[in-house]
Design brief:
It is built from six helices and four strands. With about 140 residues, it is α+β, with helices and mostly antiparallel strands. A four-stranded antiparallel beta sheet has the order 1-2-3-4.
């Protein structure tokens, strides 16, 4: 299978949206449940963070898969909350459409604070995903 590896730091706005859509379709995570705007923001924050390592496999403008790692994954989650007004609007949207997610966010935030501090030069593989039709090829 022919594809090109694209550094996560070089994604444009449209590619962030495509990556968010892929994430939502193949990952059953709290981030997926929070919706496209927050997923797009997550990957934009990741792309702007020089500590993040990530790549997308792209073929003919289609993202086939991606991998993302960070030595400070909790910092990515913290940065999603800015700008504050945008974040508050997103939380209000979730409160009105999926109020049960707020409990999951609270639990997840509490657990994230209890995470171990990473060792020097350690990177946590945060996400890896592949479109179903490209798996095993």
């Amino acid at each position: 299978m022919d594809y090109t590896l694209l550094d996560i730091h070089h994604l444009d706005a449209q590619q962030h949206k495509l990556l968010a859509s892929l994430h939502q379709s193949v990952m059953e995570t709290l981030l997926s449940d929070l919706g496209t705007p927050i997923i797009v923001r997550y990957y934009k924050v990741a792309a702007d963070d020089e500590n993040v390592i990530g790549f997308c496999a792209v073929k003919e403008e289609v993202i086939l898969g991606w991998v993302l790692g960070s030595p400070y994954p909790h910092m990515l989650n913290n940065k999603i909350r800015t700008p504050l007004i945008w974040f508050v609007v997103q939380m209000l949207r979730i409160l009105l459409t999926r109020p049960g997610l707020l409990w999951q966010i609270a639990v997840s935030t509490r657990l994230a604070k209890a995470e171990l501090v990473p060792e020097p030069d350690e990177i946590e593989l945060t996400y890896i995903g592949v479109v179903p039709e490209a798996r095993g090829k």
